[in-house]
UniProtKB/TrEMBL annotation:
Matches recorded under PANTHER family: BLL4672 PROTEIN, BLL4672 PROTEIN-RELATED
InterPro entries: Cro/C1-type_HTH (IPR001387), Lambda_DNA-bd_dom_sf (IPR010982), MLTR_LBD (IPR041413)
GO molecular function, one term: DNA binding
PROSITE patterns: HTH_CROC1
Source species taxonomy: Bacteria, Bacillati, Actinomycetota, Actinomycetes, Streptosporangiales
Domain (HTH cro/C1-type) ranges: 36-86
Organism in which the protein naturally occurs: Streptosporangium roseum (strain ATCC 12428 / DSM 43021 / JCM 3005 / KCTC 9067 / NCIMB 10171 / NRRL 2505 / NI 9100)
Protein name per Swiss-Prot or TrEMBL: Transcriptional regulator, XRE family
C-alpha cells in the first residue's frame, strides 16, 4: 500500500489536486492536463524550488522543515486539523518491527456506565470498531453492537446507509475522522486489512480515501431517518476515556424540547416495552 511508504508525498499530491488555480489566485491559461494545481505552481506559491517539491511528492526527501510544511499548508488551503496532520507526517517516525495488534478492551467501569446511560452511547475503538453499546444505541441502529465496525457498516450495509438522508456527507466525514484517528501509524496490520477490504468492496470509499481528508468530527450533528420514529437530529459527542488509549465514548443526544427529543423518548419507550 503506497500510504505505508510515502505518506507525506501522497498527502500533498492528493491535496494539490483538489485546489483549483482560481482558488489559489493564479490565472488558468491554456489547456490543463491535470486536475488542480501543477507541481511547479505549488512550489512557486510556497516559495520553494520545483525540484525540491518534486522530491517531496516522490518521497525522496522526507524531512522538510516546519516552515516549508506551513507554507505548503497555506498554498493547499488546509484547515487547522489538516495542517497539524501534515506537520505530523513531516516529522517522520522511527521504523519499528510490526507487532500483532493488541485487542482493544473496554474498561469494566466504562462498560457499566454505558449500560446505565439514558442516551444512545457506545464505545468506539481506534479503527472505528464498536467495542460496547447500550440498548438504546442498538435501537437507533441494529449495527451498533459489539463486534461491528462503523466503516464497514456505512459503506457496505444498505440498511445502515438508509438511516442517513445525507449519506454522502456522513460517509465523507467518517473517512476523514478515521484518517485522523489512525494518524501516521499505517503499518498496523489491522489498518492495512480494513482499508484494503473497503477499497476493493466500495468504490465510494476508495475515492474518499484518495482525497486524504482529515477531520476530528467533534460535536458533529447527525441526521437520522429512523424506520420507526422518523427523522431525528442528534448531537454526537466523542469523549476520551482515561486508561483506554485510542478509544472514545460516543454519546448521541438531542437538543432539549425538540421534536427529536420527543422521538428519541418514544423510541426508548418502545424499546422497553
Amino acid at each position: 500500500m503506497s500510504d505505508e511508504f510515502n505518506l507525506l508525498g501522497d498527502y500533498v499530491r492528493a491535496r494539490r489536486e483538489l485546489v483549483t488555480p482560481e482558488q489559489a489566485g493564479i490565472p488558468s491559461v491554456g489547456v490543463r492536463r491535470v486536475s488542480g494545481l501543477r507541481r511547479e505552481e505549488v512550489a512557486m506559491l510556497a516559495g520553494i524550488s520545483a525540484d525540491y517539491y518534486l522530491r517531496l511528492e516522490q518521497g525522496r526527501d522526507r524531512n522538510p522543515s516546519a516552515q516549508v510544511l506551513e507554507s505548503l499548508a497555506r498554498v493547499l488551503q488546509l484547515d487547522d486539523n489538516a495542517t497539524a496532520y501534515l506537520l505530523r507526517l513531516g516529522a517522520g517516525k522511527p521504523r519499528r518491527r510490526r507487532r500483532r495488534p493488541r485487542k482493544e478492551t473496554v474498561p469494566p467501569g466504562v462498560a457499566k456506565l454505558i449500560v446505565t446511560l439514558p442516551l444512545p452511547a457506545y464505545m468506539e475503538g481506534r479503527y472505528l470498531d464498536v467495542l460496547a453499546a447500550n440498548s438504546l444505541a442498538t435501537a437507533l441502529s441494529p449495527r451498533l453492537v459489539a463486534g461491528g465496525n462503523r466503516l464497514r457498516d456505512v459503506f457496505l450495509d444498505p440498511a445502515e446507509q438508509a438511516l442517513y438522508p445525507d449519506w454522502e456527507d456522513a460517509a465523507q466525514g467518517m473517512v476523514a475522522g478515521f484518517r485522523e484517528s489512525v494518524g501516521t501509524d499505517t503499518d498496523d496490520p489491522r489498518f492495512i486489512e480494513l482499508v484494503g477490504e473497503l477499497s476493493l468492496a466500495s468504490p465510494r470509499f476508495s475515492r474518499l480515501w484518495a482525497r486524504h481528508d482529515v477531520n476530528t468530527c467533534e460535536g458533529t450533528p447527525k441526521h437520522i431517518d429512523h424506520p420507526q420514529v422518523g427523522g431525528l437530529w442528534l448531537n454526537r459527542e466523542r469523549l476520551g476515556v482515561s486508561g483506554a488509549t485510542g478509544q472514545t465514548l460516543v454519546v448521541l443526544h438531542p437538543d432539549p424540547g425538540t421534536d427529536s427529543a420527543d422521538k428519541l423518548a418514544l423510541l426508548a419507550s418502545v424499546m422497553r416495552t
